[in-house]
């Protein structure tokens, strides 16, 4: 279009399969500008701010911003380069965004670029520059569409105690059918995200129900070695000599005491104490030469006779088995100075692995599965990883979801449900609300991806017995938010911002979230983001626990495991406890073994892992801002 004898008006249109808000994000966000305007570009959406357009690693043109119509139009004044001889000193650049009818069921947007007046001799240079920007935008558009159409999830497996071999739990899950994989759709590859070269990852091909799934293993057995008998006996002595009673807030208790030894461990605890008292009585009777205990020397001669035979067997078999298996729990569960280094290494490795999965930019969901002591490790690394990430976001412009729900409304609902103490709320209903709250955070650019924690045969059922210090319960640790619970611990907070100003006398409310202000990238305006506190991990992460009940003497089922929700453990009423039938004497390693039991444990594990979520993730990815799929590339 001719605008003068020696100048013309340049016009270029680009059709993107994105909503206008998504296209607007790609236009002004710094990490996306560098992908299509050049690495040295500078574009701040503030009237009067300086603008730089780069090309081939050098500054091409400069200018300033004249006006902005949010989500619709930007007007810019560009300076004419020094090598443009003749013509005006400035040109006017306008970029418009307009919504178009949907293409293949997805929103579309027309981006129109106009610049005038341009001298005839330099119209080709302008055309080449914007044609290249057009090609880059189309590549970004294609990348976003592929990411939204092909969700991907990761599963992190954490093994339990004992002489575990690298890849043992991964191979067990692959061969059991828990992951629902088929032989032709599974590939085992090197795990480049782990620091241990012994490990591999498995990639499971996606289908119409399950997205492509990468399965990783967190191996930690090599980090706890050379456990001594003194370290194990010291831990057992600590458990044995801890006070079995604590002060109870129950008024009907006349002595204000509560028994803290778990019911399943009480017979064993009393038996050990009975043996200790009998031995002490025998030694006391022998030393005082009491006549009715004259048979003591004969009794004491029995172990002296069999000691030469049992000694070597205990040394080469029993003692090594004792320290290698029980020693892992003794070293990790006790915060003794001798164990701090090992605990630190295991947790640091786990948190680093989770951070790498988050920063990869290819996953839309993460499931963490922990067996036995691995469930405690999973609980710890999730707590520390969430504490480092709970305040992170990408400066969102909060807007309603596609279903019309406002920002952070799902967060409010899950918070109200916990504050109102809905004891009749089933774990399944609570997990639905937790998942909605997680989706709400993801739509508002919060990067947390862990949707589920699955624990198998978890000793956390004895949390008060194993984790409490000084003969006390874990209530103080929960109140101090060092032990996250499900739902999170509630706090009394005052209203924030406008709500506070509306009330002359602010009323405290029970919450586990808080608001924080930040400056938006557009105009440096003040905006508010709603955060969960550092121990509110299970506001958005579901917790499922599978266990096998045991009989009174602990001979059948799984003595190590137990419920974590309503019946015991005290880690939260929203934990989904799944009880399996007792089918044998030792079922601690049966949870993913289809050849043992009745096979229902495999189906239960598949159900709580819930890997067939392709449709739900596809729907969620359509609502997540498009620029998040390009941030890692920038």
Strand order in the sheet with the most strands: 9-10-11-8-14-15-20-21
Task: Report the sheet with the most strands, covering strand number, pairing sense and barrel closure.
Answer: 8 strands, mixed
- Helical content stands at 25-40%
Structural class, from secondary structure content? alpha+beta
Stated plainly, the CATH topology of the domain at 152-225 and 337-492 and 537-593 is called: Rossmann fold
So, CATH architecture of the domain at 152-225 and 337-492 and 537-593? Answer: 3-Layer(aba) Sandwich
Strand content: 15-25%
Unreliable runs, pLDDT <50, ≥5 residues?
498-508
Molecular structure report:
The structure is a single chain. The chain has 16 helices and 21 strands. It is an alpha+beta fold and 634 residues long. Among the domains are: 143 residues, Alpha-D-Glucose-1,6-Bisphosphate, Chain A, domain 4, CATH 3.30.530; 287 residues, 3-Layer(aba) Sandwich (Rossmann fold), CATH 3.40.50. The radius of gyration is 32 Å and the shape is elongated. About 2% of the residues have low confidence.
Question: Summary?
Answer:
With 634 residues, this protein is of the alpha+beta class.
